[in-house]
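All the exercises in this workshop are built on plain-text protein records. The record below serves as our worked example for the rest of this section.
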Amino acid sequence: MTIFTTHDKDVGNGFGYVSWNTILRLRDYKVRGAWKPLVEEKNIPGEHTEIVGGVTLKQPYVTRLCITDFGRQYYRDNWQRCRELYPN
């Protein structure tokens, strides 16, 4: 089962080369029905200004998508298999 999508350019949705559907798949990952997210959102201290619908919003943090401890372990456990399936 592949959980990543492949893009050769920024998809323009604020997540760089990763599609929103991929973000959801990583965030909502389950193992035998148990929720085991591979990534999670974290608020990093630091002022951030964003314009949404013509309104300027100022927040004391920046939200970033970060790999979870489970995600790190999943990567270590599955790296070799994925490398063999996708050598390039």
About this structure: Residues 1-7 have pLDDT under 50 and may be disordered. Residues 20-85 form one domain. The radius of gyration is 16 Å.
